[in-house]
Design goal:
The chain is of the alpha+beta class and about 475 residues long. The chain has 2 domains: about 70-255, no CATH class; about 285-470, Alpha-Beta Plaits (2-Layer Sandwich), CATH 3.30.70.1230. Helices cover about 60% and strands about 15% of the residues. Strands 1, 2, 3, 4, 5, 6, 7 and 8 form an 8-stranded mixed beta sheet that branches. The radius of gyration is 37 Å and the shape is rod-shaped.
């Protein structure tokens, strides 16, 4: 567990260098929370993860002997992820095999005397050319779809050719031991998975060991030593292959776990920040501050919230706020505007950012009408109806990410202050808008004049009450 926590801290530190401190801190907290839950499960081994938990979070995720994942889908994903690297490894291995066989041919021209030309033909055609054909096949769709069969056929032909070379030449007995290179080559360079590669190496060795005594005379003691060498090479190679693939599968699972955590952290950030802002932070932007020539800001406030909330239990107050604000969140998403924040019983949203879009004022107006409609059926537990005050203003503003440990996407400027004044100077159950909003919306919406009011910090302002859409609808639905 301590190593996991150290990993989480190290991971956060690494991410800090490439992105922002904010992203690294959020990711670290998520990882540490995940690790603590894992520790609790370790302390209580009788408990199982909930039904929706990922299968890769369990301790036993692959077979101890075959190394295959217990989840067939995970097994398929493992091989799909490895296919590209395995294909490159197989091609490299075949190039090495061709070079090695050509090199041995040059050596045999100086060492061997009997049937030299026939041995050379077998070395070139039965070995080097077979590997070359197999290499070419890996570039075809058929070869890519049948890599296992291709590898088995290639190594079988090579084994038969090498057996023939030893049978018809005057090579010394020690030459037979050279087949150990073929065994190790198969185990370390042919990427078919532990079970398939081990089976292929064993089958090749049995084939070669069975045929060799029938192709040449060899003393039983020498043959026994050679067989012992083959067995030692198989055991050492298979053990090494087992632990190598076991490590690869564990790394695959760990990367999947990190990917899951990244997904969770991304969801968390998208709940805190706009998606476009998250993408910019992930690309390495340290400070985000954008100026918008025109955006529309909405403030909404629950009328009489403080007085009514004092008559109710905290859980009842929280339940009511959650019901109201969740409905507002859904409406904001439907109108394609951005929820900025909530502050107590106040709700703030804006249109035309973080990406500039036309029709943002109409979208905010439609949202305001829908918010008024949404609370008509909501009442406090004592029966008191919920009433809103809403204010809207449009104009230039600045938007950006503020803070470090508890960062947020926020807005600044006179437009924001004026929208707040529109809400605070509004009447219960009404949507007050500035004259600039009235001008932008034109005849698409209906209004009641509110006259000129004295706005703190602004002076006299002509305002209107938004009452509905001209076509009788309740909002702008894109």
């Amino acid at each position: 567990m301590q190593r996991r926590v150290m990993f989480a801290a190290s991971f956060a530190k690494t991410m800090t260098g490439s992105r922002t401190h904010k992203l690294a801190a959020a990711r670290s907290r998520i990882l540490l929370l995940r690790m603590s839950r894992s520790k609790n499960r370790d302390l209580h081994p009788g408990t199982e993860p909930h039904a929706g938990a990922s299968k890769i979070s369990r301790d036993r995720y692959f077979s101890r002997y075959s190394l295959r994942f217990l989840d067939s889908d995970l097994e398929d994903q493992f091989w799909t992820a490895r296919f590209g690297s395995d294909l490159r490894q197989l091609r490299f291995s075949l190039v090495v095999a061709i070079a090695v066989n050509v090199g041995f041919l040059a050596l045999e021209l100086f060492v061997l005397n009997e049937n030299l030309y026939l041995v050379a033909l077998l070395r070139l055609v039965g070995c080097a050319l077979v590997f070359a054909v197999a290499l070419a096949a890996t570039f075809t769709d058929f070869g890519k779809q049948h890599l296992t069969a291709l590898a088995v056929l290639t190594m079988a032909i090579f084994s038969l050719s090498y057996t023939a070379i030893n049978g018809m030449s005057d090579a010394p007995d020690i030459y037979i031991s050279g087949y150990i290179l073929a065994i190790l080559f198969t185990l370390y360079f042919v990427p078919l998975g532990f079970r398939n590669t081990s089976s292929l190496a064993i089958a090749m060795t049995l084939l070669f060991a069975t045929l060799v005594p029938f192709t040449r005379a060899i003393a039983p003691s020498a043959l026994l030593i050679i067989y012992a060498q083959f067995l030692a090479a198989l055991v050492m190679g298979i053990v090494a292959l087992y632990w190598l693939e076991r490590l690869q599968r564990r790394n695959f699972v760990n990367l999947r776990r990190i990917g899951d955590e990244r997904g969770r952290y991304r969801v968390l950030l998208n709940q805190i920040l706009p998606t476009e802002i998250v993408e910019r932070l992930e690309k390495g932007e340290g400070e985000i501050a954008d100026e918008f020539a025109e955006s529309t800001v909405l403030f909404a406030d629950i009328v009489g919230f403080t007085a009514v909330s004092e008559r109710h239990k905290p859980a009842e107050v929280l339940a009511l706020l959650n019901r109201i604000f969740r409905s507002f969140d859904a409406l904001a998403a439907g109108h394609e505007v951005e929820k900025i924040k909530t502050n107590g019983d106040a709700y703030m949203a804006a249109g035309g950012l973080p990406q500039i879009r036309p029709g943002h004022c109409e979208a905010i107006a439609g949202l305001a009408l829908d918010m008024m409609q949404a609370v008509t059926d909501i009442r406090w537990p004592d029966g008191t109806p919920v009433s809103l005050r809403i204010g809207i203003h449009t104009g230039p503003l600045i938007a950006g990410v503020i803070g470090k440990s508890r960062f947020a996407y926020d807005l600044w400027g006179d437009t924001v202050n004026t929208a707040s004044r529109m809400e605070s100077h509004s009447s219960n159950g009404r949507i007050q808008v500035s004259d600039s909003v009235r001008a932008v919306l034109g005849d698409a919406f209906t209004f009641d004049p509110h006259g000129t009011i004295d706005v703190k910090g602004k002076g006299p302002m002509k305002t209107w009450f938004l009452t509905g859409r001209s076509d009788g609808g309740t909002g702008n639905r894109h």
